[in-house]
Structure formats: C-alpha cells, structure tokens
Amino acid sequence: MEDLIHYILSIFYILSLGVIFIYCFGAYVLTxxxxxxxxxxxxxxxxxxxxxxxxxxxxxxxxxxEKYVVGRLIESVCKLDYPQELLQIDILDDSDxxxxxxxxxxxxxxxxxxLNIHHKRxxxxxxxxxxxxxxxxxxxxxxxxxxxDADFIPPKDFLISLLPHFENKKIGMVQSxxxxxxxxxxxxxxxxxxxxxxxxxxxxxxxEKGNYYMNFNGTAGIWRRECIEDxxxxxDKTLTEDLDLSYRxxxxxxxxxxxxxxxxxxxxxxxxxxxKVQQYxxxxxxxxxxxxxxxxxIKSKTMTLKQKVFALIHLMASTTYAFVFFVxxxxxxxxxxxxxxxxxxxxxxxxxIFFVSTILLCYSYWISWKANNNDSxxxxxxxxxxxxxxxxxxxxxxxxxxxxxxxxxxSDFIRTPKFDEPELSELQKKKYFKPxxxxxxxxxxxxxxxxxxxxxxxxxxxxxxxxxxxxxxASGFGMISYYQIKEIYMN
Length: 491
Known about the structure:
Layout: H1 2-42, E1 57-63, H2 70-78, E2 87-93, H3 99-111, E3 117-121, H4 128-137, E4 144-147, H5 158-162, E5 171-180, H6 187-209, E6 221-224, H7 225-230, H8 241-251, E7 255-266, H9 272-299, H10 305-315, H11 319-336, H12 342-349, H13 352-371, H14 377-407, H15 426-432, H16 439-460, H17 464-490
Parallel strand pairs: 1-2, 1-4, 2-3, 5-7
Antiparallel strand pairs: 4-6, 5-6
C-alpha cells in the first residue's frame, strides 16, 4: 500500500512537471517565431494604403456600472478619425447605477456634433457581455464591428489603420495591441504589464508567424460581421466569449491579423481584489473553452498537427496553473518522504525539469522585455523573480477557477472594476468595489504557513534546492495574502 502511494504521488508529480515544461517550451517556440518575424519585417517593403478601404463601421461599447471611466471611453471613440457618415456608435448599457446618466449626457453632447451615436438598453443582462453584443448586432447594416471595453482609449487612427487589412477577404478579425495608462503606478501594475506585454509581443506575433490559431482579446479589435455570423455568433456558454468565438471562427477557415504598432491604452487593475476577479474570469473561461473546443480541434480535418498542438497549448494556458500548484504541494510531500523509497528519490531528481522550464520561460520574457524598449538586465531579473513569486501566490486561486471551469456550475460574468486613477481616494474605491474576506484568502494564509514549515524542514535537512523553491512559494502566498488584508483593513 505504501509503495502504491509513492507511485501515485510520483506519477502526478512527473505529469505536472511535464505539463509545465510543454507550456514553457511552447513559449520558447513562439519566441523563436517572434524573432524570425522581426527579422523578416526589416526586409519587408509592404505598406498598406489607408485609403484602400472605407466601409460602414459599427463601434460597440458594452458597459455595466462603469461610472468612473465610461465618459472617457465615449470621448475617445467620438474622436476617431473616420467619416461620420460611415460610423455608428452604440453604447450597450446594462448598468443600474449613475453610469446611465453619464451616458445620456455624453450622447446628447456628441449627437449635437452630428455623430451617429445611440444608447442601447435591454430588459435584463441575459448573456452578460456576449448577450449584449449579440442582441444589438442586428440593429445595424455595418459590415465591420469594433468592440471596446469601458476602460479603453483607442487612438484616433484606430479605424483607418486596421480596416485596410480586411482587403484580404479571408481576414475575419484584426486585433490591436493593449497599452497601459497606469503601468508604473505600483508593483502590482508593473507585474501585470510584464505579463501582458509578453502576450502582446511574443504570443500574438509568434502565433501569427507560425500560422497557429490566435485570439481576439475581447476589446480593441475589429470583426468582419460575416465572420461573427458564420462562426455562430457570440456565446455566453463560457466566461471568455472572445476566446471561444476566436477558435470557432478559425475552425471555419477565417484568418486573424495582429497589428502591434496600433496601441489602444487601457487601465490595469489597481487592487488585488480586482485583479483576482479578472484572473478568475480569464482562467475559468480558458478552462471552459478547452473543455468545449478540445474535440472540434482534435477532429478538425483542416488543421495541421502543429496547429492542433499549439492550439491545445494555448487553451491549456490557464490549466497550467493547476499543475503549478500541484508541483509545489507534491514537491513538499515527496521531500518529506525522501529516503523512504527509491521511487521517490528517483522522482525528485526529475525536479530539474522545473528549472529547465523556468529558464525557457525566463528567456522568452527577456526577449519580450527587450522588445519593449528596456535592456536593463538587473531590473528585468528583479521584475521576473517578483513575477514568479506573484504567479506562484496566485496558483491556488487560479486552480479553483480552472476546476470550476471544468466541473463547476455556470457563473455570472463579474466585471473587473476600473477607477480612472488617480482621481479616486481609497475610500471611494471601497464604496465602489468593496474588498472582502473570502475562502480563498483563508486558504492562502494557511498555504503561507504550510510552506514556511516546508522552508524550516529544508533547512533542517540542508536541502538547498527545496529551500529556494519553498522560499519562492511561501513568499508568493504571503504576498497575495498581504495585499488583500491590507486592502480590507489598512486603507
């Protein structure tokens, strides 16, 4: 019986290490693709003519209780450089607070200037964001639909820069890059920007160069209406309706385009509570999409084997968090059982796979870091180490999201609160979005103490490798717990 337990623990540990390695190796391949793309771009002489395509465009702005940022959104969209007679702006308002009054006032202001701008409301929030986008798409004859979330600030040339790409009739969606208006505000926003810059630098360009499936990021992009309809429309069956529709469209044969030099600025979550809401939605939605799309991808007769592999790696990104958490817990259990079984001793020697995975990921993030105009190795080393601590601390929270995505009941689409910093005081933030004690916070505190004990154990047995791993993990759960407690009690 004891040997059986050792075998089971070892198998799960090796499996978890393998999943993490596959994800990190995938990031490495995307990085190599990115570098090839940059080299090819230097020799390219292709330039789009911004006058090639002027068509009717619908701009949809789905909002729900965004009183602090909705005015800024409407103002920026109304400043888009595009013929007014070809532009329709629909504000899809599901709000039940002062947001609606701000929208009404803004529409009155810009309607007087001749803009074709409308206030659209439903009787209920059925389907949440996906439901609103689907419900009001029928209210237009526009061939192209741009979508912006409430905290985004599109550049004036957004439409005239992205629309020419649709001259290729196979293009179904064009995505712009996200910028960050508050990137330097705090350690929390700096770490988020590191991760998002990696996504919009390495992942998007790497997937495009490799001819792998890409994704719409839910905002700051333009869809061909025919593509949306052909793929079956927006669906509320997952919390990441953007990822779901992206894959359904590409399985239908549509191509996507990423334009990295057009940047749509947005606000990063400024509180740990807000960030965890966003992370939960993204990771649960990712797991739901993997569950929903796994079979269509495997059975696809149009995808190549390489496309299928990288599609599954893409969709498993959130699920990888579950295996990160398993590695940490299983590592401690195996360390406690070391020298009691040859199986466990052999298994622990495979821990080097985790360090190889970390090196591959570090290399990929370093290339992204340099691409975003920063060559400081010292600053990158500090930021990346902190990023590892941060993501380790979120591993349990994101594990719960993933498990809920695979086996949990359907949940509401909870928006990520945005505050239009630095206008709001801490008191105003709390009234708008109150941090709360939660089951996850309680477990994260317990996990902090658990891995402190693991540190003590590694010191007792002079296990240097385990010591550094457990320092990383304990610091991560401690950081996440500290931020939340601080937001609840100290402001």
